[in-house]
Model the fold of this input.
Amino acid sequence: MTHAAFPALRLRRSRRYAWSRAMFAENVLTPANLIWPLFIAWGDVEEPIASLPGVSRWPIAMIGDRAREAKAAGIPCLALFPNTPRELRSDDGREALNPDNLMCRAIKAIKDAVPDIGVLTDVALDPYTSHGHDGLVDAQGRVLNDPTSAVLVEQALVQAHAGSDIIAPSDMMDGRVGAIRNALEAAGHVDVQIMAYAAKYASAFYGPFRDAVDTRGLLKGDKKGYQMSPSNSEEALREVALDLAEGADSVMVKPGLPYLDIVRLVKDRFGVPVFAYQVSGEYAMIEAAAAVGAGDRDALVLETLMSFKRAGASGVLTYHALHAARLMGG
Ligand code: PBG
Done:
């Protein structure tokens, strides 16, 4: 048995030149794949977030400029998270239903500045409750499912009325997608989409986000009673199946990088638009790595974002969105 004199095929041939690498690319990343999460400040000044270096809370007066920057860079959609003053937080999170709350004012400011940029709004009570949970709690601190769902429906309607394009429930209550869809239809908001946080894990990567919306110090206990266990993937598929059956237009997997396997499983099983949320702790990890010289920041950002496309995601929510879009020439 003699060995062939030459390799049967040299895969390196296609990698030799930049033009060829571009031609053989199986996936492409564009600014249109990015959703930019923005934090809204109550006051009049920009508020940098220490655990999220490079990310700030923006006052209403400056949020329109962020929308213009996003639009100019080719980013199609913004995701909004308000930092509600503590004095407006309550056990029942009723500020979430105020049609003039920070979220609703931000939606309007963005639509005034850039009418044709998409606005995705978070539906959950954690930025409005005094206990930091995503829903209503009983005397034992357990989050009540159906009573919470009823409030989330009202919250979604308030946001849709203010101009939200995509309602994104991040609370993980059972049955809330169907309830919200039904209420949106009945109220005539037939074109308002729902992006369900379908597979959202009880993760240690949410720390900086909880600083940004000031829930870290308030949160009693943990969220394991409603968010998923990192050990489970079959359950993620059941969550996705339910949210789709209830009328979700797209589904989300969250966090991102540690759950790329879930993104791929969902895409293969359902063939629907899947989005990944590269969460605050992931952003902070990349920034920390770059700060100590462990890797080139721009390269780390683009490589991780490409991994979501390769895993089958339609797009990524990322705090690096503006920077990444500009790197791509947007
Ligand atoms: C809560 C919510 C969280 C995030 C988005 N919505 C945190 C949590 O569940 O406590 C995290 C996003 C991030 O870490 O970037 N409704």
User: Anything to note?
Assistant: Strands lie at 34-41, 47-48, 56-59, 77-82, 118-123, 166-169, 193-200, 250-254, 274-278, 315-318. The longest helix spans residues 145-162.
